[in-house]
Amino acid sequence: MIAAKEKITAGQFMIVVIQAQIGVGILFLPSSVESVARNDAWISILLAGMAALLLSVVMWGLNRRFPTMTLFEFLPKLLGKFAGKIVQIFYGLAFILECSMVLVLFTDVVRDWIFPITPRWVILGLMLATALYMARENIRLIARFFVLTFGLIFVLILIAAYAYKDANILYILPINESGISNVLKGMLRSMNSLYGFEMILLCYPYVKGGSKGILKATLFACVFSTLVYSFMVFMCLIVFSPEELKIIPQPVLYMVKALSFTVIERADLYFLTIWTVVVITTVMAYLYMGAKAVASIFGKKKHAGAVPYVALLILCISLYPHDQELINKMQIIVGIIAAIALVVLPFLLLCISYLFRIKGKEGAEG
Amino acid sequence: MGFFSKVFSNNRHKSARAANVRRTPPTEEKVAATLQENISYVHQALFHTEDLVNRSIPCFEKQAYLLYLNSVCDSDKIHQLILKPLLQAQDANPDRDLTAASVEKHTDLEKAIDLMIRGYAVLFLEGSEDCYAVQVNQINNRAVNEPANEKAIQGAHDGFIESMQVNLQLVRKQINSRNLVVRKYSLGKMTKTDATIVYLNDLANPELVEEIDRKITAIDADNVMNGLLVLEYIENQSFSPFPQILQSERPDRVAANLLEGRVALLMEGTPAALIMPVSFFTFYQSPDDYNSRSLAGSFIRLLRLFSFFIAIALPSYYIAVVSFHYEVIPMELFYQIKGSVEKIPYPPILEALFMELTIELLREAGMRLPAPIGQSIGIVGGLVIGDAVVRVGLVSYPMITVVALTAIASFVVPSHEMSYSVRLLRFPVMIAASLLGFLGICIGFALILIHLCKLESFGSPYFAPASPMRLRDWKDSFVRLPFWKLNERPIDPNPQQLVQEKRSKGGTGDDRG
């Protein structure tokens, strides 16, 4: 059983999911989605948000059948020992790769914008060390930290919203110019940034209250993240003309760079600083999940011991891609692995659970 | 390995040599029937110490002796409480004639000896198997003055002194409740210092009291002479930069904390109470907040919390701006700063460290010296060095401004321990800023916040009510709303009763007509 000292409330859980979702995407989403969906990029994000809602319902439905267990505890029950272990390893790999991807993109931005000649391992090491210090703890303490830093997301939104004075709403017209297929392509690209709701698979038994509350929290979190992302993309679309957007890699930063608030200049540096914390929380969430996966692969109950090794592995992986081409390649590979782990597998597992009528023990409220 | 375990073992008294020296006193020794036997036993037990006085008392049919240590006893009291009533009585009877408030009858000699050390005079009678211990200890307390380091502008001006008895009385005077419970301990195997924990029985969480009790009774040291020693034995994390127990010399502050369901520890010889568990924000509350009106109190409190950020972040922000991100300041200011920074041969971090350390030196020197010299040190240091150091070209003017502001901000904290931790914490953040600019500050602050989130003080979260977030408790942490708004106690010490008042503001609304 899980001690009351490790339980979190549904509200805390919602913020955990949001913090896991919102991360590097704030800067990368606008340009990556815009490159395919053009001025309809915001529609792609909204669609991706709906897909995220659907997926989180699937995961919730799956975990609801095992209310006292996390993903790694019920996998062996569902698939048998051997297949269960393989899927566990796969999930561990997916979390570790996603975490590395986040860090690679983060380091890229930091090197582009602030420290062009600082070695990558310094930035990566610092980020991972900070995340490691937190991820060793139980989910309750992590949730406390996430709640504390949640306000920073609003600061980011406020800074970005100030750019509205340069906006030209006509840039998004005509709607649906790029066609459905391109919008769908954009949606696939933006899915990567909305991952994070898989936290539900690992936190379900730790959340106080009924399963309805958990579902509500996850759905709220998905809606919130989708709105934040689509707000950022929308701002970029109306501030920059389509020609400008083709050239600049991180439109959000260029957008805030132009702002001047009499007391401070160069809001982009402040934006980046705050964004660093937002990214750290994402890294923490994935490090926690990765460590949980690795710990359960080796049959350990506590994940704290696995965290340093997972962090080291993530460091090694994220040091590997050193040019844009490799990063793009890695993004595609991670995208596929994440899609299998978070889209295909939960569906399959849900089907297996229903077909073979495998359920967790009753007792804890459903 | 043996060498290392010897070096690092924290209990050096466990070595075999020390154990042999110690004499373990018998736990009990009956008072013997013959007087001589008793007296010689006492003399032997106290190793013929020369402040032991035995005075024969001629007023009984049988022989009687009064034994006491004249270094701890008050001869006036001996005269008033023992000799006078006994000598004036017709046929003296100690059961009837000893009029002192505290007279104890003992059959155990060992206990009588322990009492003698604490300032009791012991009366032995020939042929009697009882002895009478009368409390005649010498009391020289200083007056109950306002504590020098916790001054309040308005409100009460009394403070704790070195006597636990008086301190307890000061606390009782504040809370006239039968629920106020005092638990006694004797700490230190050699010093046997008296200590008490005080709490409100219907408020303080029993688990909390139990945990504190367990931690106090676990102390197995020879010397526990003052409360600050106890603090390190019972706090959760000694290597955290943040203090987890509040020390206060003000009875009103202690009483207010007891009324929130916290526990206070008082010790003989310590003019302060240790209050636990506390949260980070308790250190930023001062009695002045409660003695002034709500708006003023809130303003001052916000200012103090803001000073926490200034004290830690301002020098590192300046270092980061000057070394990396000079773009973030407006152009006009930039030229000003550039003009004075350019002439300095050192990197900003060295400037800052030099200046910060100078200020710490001045502070320490000013504190050690008597007040008149201390002031002149402040003038010499602050004015002369501050000006000369710029003219020599070691430090730039903006840096002096920043460091001075930081120093002032770090002294705003109403608690000394928190002021120390703030001053300590800014050095790592400054170094991080000099290495990685804003990113360094960001990571430094993230680590501090993570630490604050992880830290617990006696099982209650240290950074409450910011994390775990409870907006209701913000009413008395970030700001101070009027008292009639504070309907619930803060939840972090887990009090037994959360509600402290119902609607208390009567007469509002339509009672004009």
Give the secondary structure arrangement, pairings included.
The complex is a heterodimer of chains A (366) and B (513).
Chain A: H1 10-21, H2 25-37, H3 41-64, H4 71-79, H5 81-113, H6 120-135, H7 139-149, H8 151-161, H9 180-194, H10 199-203, H11 211-239, H12 242-247, H13 251-257, H14 267-297, H15 307-319, H16 324-355
Helix pairs in contact in A: 1-7, 1-11, 1-14, 2-9, 2-11, 3-9, 3-11, 3-16, 4-5, 5-6, 5-14, 5-15, 5-16, 6-14, 6-15, 7-14, 8-14, 13-14, 14-15
Chain B: H1 2-8, H2 16-21, H3 35-45, E1 52-57, E2 64-69, H4 75-88, H5 94-97, E3 103-106, H6 109-117, E4 120-125, E5 131-135, H7 164-174, E6 180-187, E7 193-200, H8 206-217, H9 227-234, E8 246-248, H10 251-258, E9 263-267, E10 273-276, H11 287-291, H12 294-323, H13 331-341, H14 348-368, H15 371-392, H16 397-410, H17 416-454, E11 456-457, E12 460-461
Antiparallel strand pairs in B: 1-2, 2-4, 3-5, 4-5, 6-7, 7-9, 8-10, 9-10, 11-12
Helix pairs in contact in B: 7-10, 12-16, 12-17, 14-15, 14-16, 14-17
What are the key terms here?
heterodimer; A: 366 residues; mainly alpha; Amino acid/polyamine transporter I; 16 helices; 0% strand; B: 513 residues; alpha+beta; 45% helix
Account of the 3D structure:
The complex is a heterodimer of chains A (366) and B (513). Chain A contains 16 helices and no strands. Chain A is mainly α. Chain A has one domain (4-355): Amino acid/polyamine transporter I, CATH 1.20.1740. Chain B has 513 residues and is α+β, with helices and mostly antiparallel strands. Chain B has 17 helices and twelve strands. In chain B, strands 1-2-4-5-3 form a five-stranded antiparallel sheet, with helices on both faces. In chain B, a hairpin with a 5-residue loop joins strand 6 (180-187) and strand 7 (193-200). In chain B, 35% of the residues are buried. The chains are: A mainly alpha (366), B alpha+beta (513). Chain A binds chain B through residues 12, 110, 114-115, 118, 122-123, 126-127, 130, 133-134, 137, 141, 144-145, 147-149, 262-266, 269-270, 272-274, 276-277, 280, and chain B through 324-325, 327-331, 436-439, 441-443, 446-447, 449-451, 453-454, 461, 463, 466-469.
